[in-house]
């Protein structure tokens, strides 16, 4: 056993050395393609400080919002692939965006080097706590009593919330009226004020607000922090599993040693106890993926949502 351990360490040493061969020569810019304070921004700041400490250069979060995350993402796609400019890739800009925008200025696969999955926060279907619905079946029953009269909010046309709503309508065979807002904040505020009937948002945003009732979490298994909330699968919709996910990506052509080092430090940051605790608090459920697995995950999300958009016609322009 001792000999095997020595041999294992000898074989492991070159891999470790290769992973740590690259180091940034100046601060690393981490572009968040949404305004400060949202889920994307929260996830970015969870890992930025720890990654910066490990890399020996600060990882500076820079918010470049606009057009559903595509403005900041396009900026990074056109940046020099040297590891000093990264983006928080996400379901809006890299999963749904390729289908809902007719003239996206980048290719979500070819123009990026996908590095690591940082978090996947389950979506939830919510209503105001004063409403009578206490399950997905109740919500569907309400919609069938008044076809088109039940309004469901989203942060905007073509958002992941919007396309998930379209998928729900199709699977449940109901009519809903989509009400796009300018961001998730105003939409959520109208749910809290009982001004609109429902919303699909993230578990992090719904949180533990006593004025909101979560009818279902759109995951396959119940979330540990919300054990009393049934899943969408339990309520008969296994194909409605959906999450708002965030990852780390750089421009296409990022050298393998650079991408490998960034991947290693991102995974190490996620494993830190304080980061893991915070991820649990916001309901993040995401196993560590290899670079290849995260790349495949993004490709699968593009394919999945393109079909939903094709059937529903949920485009931005």
Secondary-structure topology with pairs:
Blueprint: H1 2-19, E1 28-32, H2 39-55, E2 59-63, H3 70-77, E3 85-90, H4 91-100, E4 112-128, H5 136-145, E5 151-154, H6 160-172, E6 177-180, H7 184-192, E7 198-202, H8 203-206, E8 212-217, E9 243-251, H9 256-271, H10 273-281, H11 291-312
Parallel strand pairs: 1-2, 1-3, 5-6, 5-7
Antiparallel strand pairs: 3-9, 4-7, 4-8, 4-9
Helix pairs in contact: 2-9, 4-11, 6-11
Features of the shown structure:
alpha/beta, 2 domains, nine-stranded mixed beta sheet, D-Maltodextrin-Binding Protein, domain 2, disordered N terminus, 317 residues
Explain this structure to me?
This protein is an alpha/beta fold and 317 residues long. The chain folds into two domains: 20-120 and 244-312, 3-Layer(aba) Sandwich (D-Maltodextrin-Binding Protein, domain 2), CATH 3.40.190; 122-240, D-Maltodextrin-Binding Protein, domain 2 (3-Layer(aba) Sandwich), CATH 3.40.190.10. It has eleven helices and nine strands. Strands 1, 2, 3, 4, 5, 6, 7, 8 and 9 form a nine-stranded mixed beta sheet that branches. Helix 2 (39-55) links the parallel strand 1 (28-32) and strand 2. The longest helix is centred in the C-terminal third of the chain and has 22 residues, at 291-312. The radius of gyration is 21 Å and the shape is globular. 45% of the residues are buried. Residues 1-19 have low confidence and may be disordered. Residues 1-17 form the signal peptide. It comes from Roseomonas fluvialis.
């Amino acid at each position: 056993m001792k000999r095997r351990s020595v041999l294992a360490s000898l074989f492991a040493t070159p891999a470790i050395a290769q992973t740590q061969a690259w180091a940034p020569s100046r601060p690393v810019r981490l572009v968040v393609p949404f305004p400060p304070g949202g889920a994307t921004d929260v996830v970015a700041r969870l890992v930025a400080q720890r990654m910066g400490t490990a890399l020996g250069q600060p990882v500076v979060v820079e918010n470049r919002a606009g057009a559903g995350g595509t403005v900041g993402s396009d900026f990074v796609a056109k940046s020099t692939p040297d590891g000093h400019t990264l983006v928080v890739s996400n379901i809006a800009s890299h999963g749904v965006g390729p289908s809902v925008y007719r003239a996206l200025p980048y290719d979500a696969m070819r123009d990026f080097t996908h590095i690591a999955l940082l978090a996947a926060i389950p979506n939830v279907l919510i209503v105001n706590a004063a409403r009578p619905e206490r399950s997905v079946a109740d919500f569907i029953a309400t919609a069938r009593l008044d076809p088109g009269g039940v309004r469901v909010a989203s942060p905007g046309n073509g958002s992941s919330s919007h396309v998930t709503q379209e998928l729900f309508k199709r699977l449940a065979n109901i009519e809903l009226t989509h009400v796009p807002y300018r961001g998730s904040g105003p939409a959520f505020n109208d749910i809290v004020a009982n001004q609109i009937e429902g919303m699909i948002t993230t578990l992090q945003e719904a949180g533990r607000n006593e004025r909101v009732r979560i009818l279902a979490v759109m995951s396959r298994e119940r979330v540990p922090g919300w054990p009393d909330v049934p899943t969408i699968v339990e309520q008969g919709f296994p194909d409605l599993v959906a999450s708002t996910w965030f990852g780390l990506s750089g421009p296409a052509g990022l050298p393998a040693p650079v991408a490998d080092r960034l991947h290693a430090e991102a995974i190490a940051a996620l494993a830190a106890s304080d980061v893991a605790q915070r991820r649990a608090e916001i309901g993040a459920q995401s196993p560590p993926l290899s670079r290849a697995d995260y790349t495949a995950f993004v490709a699968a999300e593009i394919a999945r949502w393109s079909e939903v958009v094709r059937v529903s016609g949920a485009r931005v322009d």
